[in-house]
Design brief:
homodimer; about 750 residues; alpha/beta; Rossmann fold; six-stranded mixed β-sheet; 27 helices; about 10% strand; disordered N terminus; ATP binding (chains A, B); ABC transporter domain-containing protein (chains A, B); ABC-type transporter activity (chains A, B)
Chain lengths: ~750, ~750
Amino acid sequence: MSPIVAQNVSSNNDSSTPYFQHSLELIAGEFSTATAPSSTLGQLLQHVGDTRKEATGDQTSVHELLVDISEPRPIPFVLSFNNLTYSVKVPRKMALPGFFRWSDGSAAADAAVVGNPLAAGDSYFTRTKMLLNDISGEAQDGEILAVLGASGSGKSTLIDALANRIAKGSLKGNVTLNGETLKSRMLKVISAYVMQDDLLFPMLTVEETLMFAAEFRLPRTLSKSKKKMRVQVLIDQLGLRNAAKTIIGDEGHRGVSGGERRRVSIGIDIIHDPIILFLDEPTSGLDSTSAFMVVKVLQRIAQSGSIVVMSIHQPSYRILGLLDRLIFLSRGQTVYSGSPTNLPLYFSEFGHPIPENENKTEFALDLIRELEGSPGGTKSLVEFNKSWQSMKHTRDSEPDQLGLSLKEAISASISRGKLVSGATNDINSSLMVPTFANPFWKEMVVLSKRSILNSKRMPELFGIRLAAVLVTGSILATVFWQLDNSPKGVQERLGFFAFAMSTTYYTCADALPVFLQERYIFMRETAYNAYRRLSYVISNALVALPGLIFLSFAFAMATFWAVGLDGGLSGFLFYFLIMFASFWSGSSFVTFLSGVVPHVMLGYTIVVAILAYFLLFSGFFINRDRIPGYWIWFHYLSLVKYPYEAVLRNEFENPSKCLVRGIQIFDNSPLGEIPSAMKVRLLQSVSKSLGVRITRSTCMTTGLDILKQEGITDLSKWNCLLITVAWGFLFRILFYFSLLLGSKNKRS
Amino acid sequence: MSPIVAQNVSSNNDSSTPYFQHSLELIAGEFSTATAPSSTLGQLLQHVGDTRKEATGDQTSVHELLVDISEPRPIPFVLSFNNLTYSVKVPRKMALPGFFRWSDGSAAADAAVVGNPLAAGDSYFTRTKMLLNDISGEAQDGEILAVLGASGSGKSTLIDALANRIAKGSLKGNVTLNGETLKSRMLKVISAYVMQDDLLFPMLTVEETLMFAAEFRLPRTLSKSKKKMRVQVLIDQLGLRNAAKTIIGDEGHRGVSGGERRRVSIGIDIIHDPIILFLDEPTSGLDSTSAFMVVKVLQRIAQSGSIVVMSIHQPSYRILGLLDRLIFLSRGQTVYSGSPTNLPLYFSEFGHPIPENENKTEFALDLIRELEGSPGGTKSLVEFNKSWQSMKHTRDSEPDQLGLSLKEAISASISRGKLVSGATNDINSSLMVPTFANPFWKEMVVLSKRSILNSKRMPELFGIRLAAVLVTGSILATVFWQLDNSPKGVQERLGFFAFAMSTTYYTCADALPVFLQERYIFMRETAYNAYRRLSYVISNALVALPGLIFLSFAFAMATFWAVGLDGGLSGFLFYFLIMFASFWSGSSFVTFLSGVVPHVMLGYTIVVAILAYFLLFSGFFINRDRIPGYWIWFHYLSLVKYPYEAVLRNEFENPSKCLVRGIQIFDNSPLGEIPSAMKVRLLQSVSKSLGVRITRSTCMTTGLDILKQEGITDLSKWNCLLITVAWGFLFRILFYFSLLLGSKNKRS
């Protein structure tokens, strides 16, 4: 029976591309028993093969988007919401002197509260703020419901309430689809929520971005070629054909325009062709042409059989023409609800007719704003709206339910090709849909592929880290060039090791901004269960490894022989291994921090400070046996301690190595200044007293003595290595938990 | 004769505040020979006294701004620009593989260049890009001239060209005011340029912000009370009465709304009541109501006798009603020039009539965009505009010059109270106006006052630095608690000093973001000669000192006695002094860096890396006499060297202080492990060999020996202190030069 939605899309503009002439077929996936009419599918497949030729590119013309979908909507969905009420407790502001008085919209609300200081649930320190106050309404498929109002009026809160992003219990009232209350799990399957920010990887192309979304969200049962076809259909639906091969871009890399970026964001969320689409200010930050094109795309999505609910600050005249229902909010209350065409009548009956030629919504919003500033507030308008609503309902009392039950409607919709993600034709099992589209290993592969692609497109990021390591390595190599075996040389070796091991950790901090940027994308993606958090953590670690190996090798090569470290090849290998372990634990540490700090400057400051304390407690500045007892715990927490001790053991553990020989014993001591001949005589007399024969070449201090002096006695070098690696794993695990806790998705 | 502009501002809304009922009088200053009618001035003064009572606040209502100014404009100014042409050389893009092809508006332009690869001035590596191509037009006082077009069409470039922000020689064509070419100096006096970004101090109130602008820009001859009056008049003119006592605010501090902030930015630039006002996208980032209110304010400014020239991306219907002349640009070429009312006629004659009810500018911009994407480009429209212009000029050939010469016009304007800044009634001497409004000392006072006010309002910034110093101080104090006089104790003292002296420098890095933020405001302010760069550098340094003294004292108190440092009170005083010197040189260093790095992350990374190298070369990790010759220069550059050596000298210079006594000589040596009795015997035999009596209590190593061992022999402690202080001054001087070089204000 599928595809029902073989929409005959016809272009209303001669110059539009031929892509819009083929039918927009929505792929129902392999689970769909029906087969498409071969001509249509053939056309589509041919088109997929053709795309490569056509990637010459400018921005989409407005008129390419002006395509009409004449197909009448046959499957009725009605999203109703009744008496939604939501309030939060906010700390009560104390009476402040003049210049601390804020000039925000809540001033009047504050005044109201002050007049009646202890409303239900209020205390002297908190007051209840009504974010939503008894909001009702409905939205139908094929239509766009727009929520309008000033900032702070409750637009986003209403969208959140409908999208089930407010924790149960906090929100009063009910939200139903075709008369049935929606379960959270069900809603996640049939809906999508588009956030206001475009969180996209800047170095992926539009097509790649959508393809990764398809791989994450479309069911594993769908073949790769069908996923590709879905992406191609979506690119056309979004009007992104000309930008398909362009990278998203960022400040440093030129990419697609702001409007195209917003459409890509929408595309990611509707990859599974949801029945309900929620959008929080999809047009914010766009110029009016781009904004219009975005809403035009939304209209097209609605007409493909979806309910679109969006908030919008102030629609332009053209955008207003695309909206089917409006809800005006003011301080959490409805001040108008109905179609745009009824606006003039409503306001003229209210006694404020909209002047000819004036933008209707601009006028309405200004009027509301003015009322908000007036002593009576918007109460009169709220009351007027209530009576208007009841009047309207008596005038045209259309039936709320259009017949089909939710199950029947969803089932019919699925057979028409909607809900590509995970849903099957059997509505009962659609509730049994797996939480994640892909198995664990597949997620790992796709995530790793994406990470590697990103790194490849931004080689400068790794380049900077490599440069930092090489520069520091070269400076250390030349400063500590061929250290000798003398008491001074020993001291310098200690300094070199302390500095070198800290460097590895500090270098890792440079990756912080990238991690932080990625975290937002991660939060967006896991919000709709694109993949398991664990796959992300593991793939993130695995992809980092080759780079870390390279950095460690570069640093080890630059310093080991130049400084004249001991142990030959096996010594070098261990040196390289411990470098690698430090880079690993350092990058794990920074990754973990990126999961908990809110922004990059704070993160960097914290990393630098903590690493400084790690160095202070590593055993270099003060030996373990001299650290006061109340601080010894920090010594064992110090990440730098373990690699520092490991390299010292690697250097000094050789018992045959002599570091102080014969009269060198007097170096660095008060007797260091006396003439050499005198030192020899002195040595002889010491020799006699001790009853041991000591000559000029007798070894006085071995490496083991040094280790003892430095208090490095508790761990073998291999144990140090193991502990360093274990720290790395520990921080990855902590990172996992930080992601679990950090990506909470609901208001309380 | 003044005040001519006694605008009878009447409110069209009953609820508006009484501020709009008094006359908006522009203060001509003491140099104006005319006196105001006493009743009006009395009203105004009374009003100034009254403002304090009325600071209750919400946002401005739209209708408060809708005030009519009925006064006809009597002094004609005409800004004409003819055949403005400006091109830059850009690197030619090489043919890149598929995914690197950008989808930007310049694709067609690129193609045109590829077709004709070697145009005049082009090479194989660069091509010439026309940013402005033969643009002509004019603007009159009392009117707003708006430049429209897509991003990249040359809007900002045209504004820059008119505002003389493009270096001479690069720009072809001419710009005249009343027929005379404007000299740069002259233009600076009579015009203002408002940038797109709001660079304001977040913690100052609107009134304070404008008052500081008045103090910087209005002439010294004007009394403080008159400056205050000018600010009050401006607050009303900008519709900011209700927000006057509100702070500007930032992410962390709630302040005025975006539209109000933009109006404050405009207010700062028009504090001297300029004749020409240039604005680069004054409405960008604002919602349409705020944008309308900003343009309404601009209209009011124009009607007070100024020429307003602004760029705007896409004006709403209501804003369009406020604009008097439009220039539409497309890729640097004029595609329409004329009044908004002629737009429909123009486009219908061009063959693309604007549909009924469609937003005219939206339609026009969409059409232009479509033409840009078409093969022929906008050539047809450019040609059509040319013929339309010549037709129009024959139809209504109004005289270009309205009689008054530039000198006469400016002179008349000044007597009407315009040009409060520095201009006098005598036009010849107006060119002799001093570059800066205030003398050096006055600038210092005002700048310092502002800095102190800012710091007071953000105590958390200093709090964080103090906390960092105290936490590190306490950790160091407890880790190195009461160090003993033994070889180990000496080693630990060295470590403590190295760590402590680095800490002072690292703590300074925390101030980087604040400095960077301030730099942008500095650049904005010095661009119009608000004050001398030198005053800023000196005031910046002076204001920082008390905080640095406090930090040094806190750190010195926390550590000196806890660690058990030597020297008693005089030792502590020197220790405190050298701490202060390090904080001084560290903050100077960071201040200097903030003048040269482009953004905060890079700055922080550089500071951390450089400080690490400073520490490496300070003499702690490797003694001066052991540093390879090719690196010794860096040792002397190391900021950390000098305070480190100073504290070591302060600690160890006391010749009576003994650090190694009797058998302690064997500590830290291979003989350290033998029993005490044996050590005593050994000491006796050494004593005999040397022919010196050495007992258990004989001092073996004094502090001087330690200094010798550590290679600290070249500078006395007072010299170290002096050099540290000198570094601080050097970096302040470098900071001054970085500001000189960094605040270039013109395109090349």
